[in-house]
Amino acid sequence: MQKLVSEFAVSNGILKVVDGKPSLLSCTLLPSPVPKTLLHHAKNIQCDFNLLYHRVAMDHEFLDAILKPVVVVDPYLRSLWNIYSRIRTNQVTQDIVLGLNRSDYMLHLQEDLCNAKRQTLIHRLQSTKLAAQSDIETEDEAWNGLSIKQVEFNMIACSFCGLGQRIAPQHRIALSLHGISKDLNTRVPDCFSADRFSDALLSACRMYVEDCSRRSLVPTKVSILIVVGDNEGNIYDHRALIGCLLLKSPEVNVLYHSFNYLKTGLKLDSNFRLFVDNQEIAVVYFRTGYTPDAFPDEETWNVKYQLEQSLAIKCPCIQYMLANTKIIQAALSKPKYLSRFFQPDSASYVNILSTFVHQYTLDEEMEISDSTEIQYAVNDCLLRPDDYVLKPQREGGGNNYFGEELAQKLKSIITHSERKFYILMKRIQPYTFENYILNSSSMFEESKARKMVTEMGIFGAILARKNHIFLNECSGHLLRSKPLESNEGGIVAGFGCLDSPFLV
User: Fold this and answer.
1) Per the structure, how many domains does the chain have?
2) Binding site annotation covers 117?
3) Is residue 397 scored above 70 in pLDDT?
4) 420 Cβ contact partners less than 8 Å away, ≥ 6 residues apart
5) CATH number for the domain harbouring residue 103
């Protein structure tokens, strides 16, 4: 059966590149059980998160105050900040911004639940086959003790909006093959993330043309530039997104280029319009550039600056990249900072705040955590390192510290300026369930059932000019699951697997 389902997955395009060839991307055999009310709650607050981070990115005073201590110790962030500072002084700038975001959550089991309630929740979510025997629970109270807690908010190169749209029909096929056929379209909801993100990119193209007219410029046929890494393994996810875009608007030209190519391949005219391969670029969509190794030399940083200073609409712009840092996320988890962007008596404020677990900076001078909080968190972490995760100011996965490694790292940095580079976060305690992992090996041999946990991603798009919001929407959902014993969850990196929700 696993071989057959794996063959369907390949035919549905659930793929990655390995050694230059297509290979089955790790995915679950069946969709995994998720409470319907919690998925809907996460979707309902996505627009609030889109707006929150847009407001943060537009607030220079806030960015400066929060990031200043980290910029001193982090060369990568310092380079981003320097580009931002130069762009702010330019006479000609593009103030239209596009965000294609993803908010990631885990479903957290409350620590102080009575044992009977805990066991009831665990039993109801332990496997898809068991969950299929009961109807969907529509009452919020049924899931008391289980809540969504944010892992992080992503604003650059959010992966799997393309393949996330394909995994739902794949899982419906798998359920049918396993004899589960009742209400499949309801239990495994459609995801239209590729459609929604492609619509947002096309809207940005139209806004670019309108903006050129406002500046008395006459645009030629406009193109979208997708900036990719030199060795991109997740290319089929890109293709799924751009395939949707081209089906909607066949006349749009799409270019894929690396920073390395753009060192000689881009040109700005006297009005700062961007041209690549003699094509006028309306939107620059970054699928790379979120880690230091994307910028090996000053020439690459200069390419980044030229793209940012151009009239093309950036996704994300440099301000969004600065807002998308761990220290900003830690600051927003504190009521005194969140209230700068939403009124404390608003539903948006309450809903956003409820998703945060405790987060601590390790230096009082950063004015996020005070000395008492820091001392408590450090002492507690050294006693119970499995209850925490240590996060550096880095995106892309695989950078965090857990368990005994965390404790040793914490001891080594706590008295040095390097501590400003890290955030200490209370670890989310999710429920576990049973599923199977399909990968290239499952084409030849059956895999065993695994205890797994899942991370729920909610896609969102925002298109804005300063305080004028043209588009703000929830754009779909995604599950990424991993074996219980795995700390990291990157799919292409091999830590986790693509999944979809089976609503309970």
Assistant:
1) 2
2) no
3) no
4) 69, 70, 72, 73, 361, 362, 363, 366
5) 3.40.50.1760
